Amino acid sequence: MEIDNFPSHIIEEIKNTWEIWNSPPILSTDSLHLGDIELMNLNNIQEG
């Protein structure tokens, strides 16, 4: 089956899913614990 045979909304959904799966992870402050943020800050200070 050719990809051109799929409806355009299905192709768009597959494309969007592919891009999400293959994009680098995005860190949000919601996903980090305060201790992790403090540790990252401490590492940055020591490196700088």
Automatic annotation (TrEMBL):
Protein name (Swiss-Prot/TrEMBL): Uncharacterized protein
